[in-house]
Amino acid sequence: MDVHLRELRYFVAVAEELHFTRAAERLFVSQPALSKQIRALERQLGFSLLQRTPRGVALTSEGEALLPTAQKLLSLWGEGLESARYANSAMLVIGLQTAVGRNLQQNALQLFKSRMPYCNVLMRLIAWDDPSAGLTNGSSDVAFIWLPAPDGLATRVLYREPRYVALPVTHPLAERTEISLAELADEAFIALPAAAGALRNFWLGLDVRREVRIAGEATSAEETFEMIASGLGVVLLAEGNAKLYERPDVVFRPVPDIPSAELAVAWSPSDRRPVVKAFLECLQAAARPEGEQDQELPT
Length: 299
Fold this sequence. Notes:
Blueprint: H1 5-17, H2 20-27, H3 31-45, E1 50-53, E2 56-59, H4 61-85, E3 91-96, H5 104-115, E4 120-125, E5 142-146, E6 154-161, E7 163-168, E8 188-191, H6 198-203, E9 213-217, H7 221-229, E10 235-238, H8 239-244, E11 250-254, E12 261-267, H9 274-287
Parallel strand pairs: 3-4, 3-5, 8-9
Antiparallel strand pairs: 1-2, 5-12, 6-12, 7-10, 7-11
Helix pairs in contact: 1-2, 1-3, 1-4, 5-9
């Protein structure tokens, strides 16, 4: 038995609309032609899928059983067609502001390249004054960002990590094993650019306090750690980043009395391209995300 996609598409349209006229308009065919195709499908299957009612159409028990499978087959076919169209030209631009580490990029990209070998991947370093890492202006397709994220983005938390403070090795608190935020009340902090908005405030600890003294702004990790090593200020950062940026003239100590930082992957909720969906699924497999705030992947 060979059932064609067109016949399934006609059945799904009538089943979803529960009205032959509306389904015919949706499919841009005449109602008699649609009715004829449905009858032909029913003859081929050997059972009825639909029954007419005074108000329109109702599904038979067989029709109700077949509908989810038919919808899934049509969806998979659509995704496959779109993937084929992009086979020679697809590109995924990944935005990031600092080194991600944590084996995220390597593991996720290995999975992604095995799944979509035709897709070219570009990793773009975005300035710290853009907390969306290129998503807001469209220069990135997906991005690794720290929360809080700008409005309008979908996010999925990948890691939750304690916040640390980075101090010059000569600092009086450098010998401590951990440091409370209250002990940092008089310290000058190095800030992200003002354009970073809520993210700047988070890394200044303003999510749990009202005031902070700012020593200056930094636009890169290199600038930040040179300022710290020179004794110009201190900075909060995630535990994983403390391990990434180890150097002999700077020490990193946990600040246990403040909420953890959240590293997330972000994307535009309106971007339904297969390459974006595939990369997000590969990240999910590589990082095993968790948390109530995680959002559904695009479908």
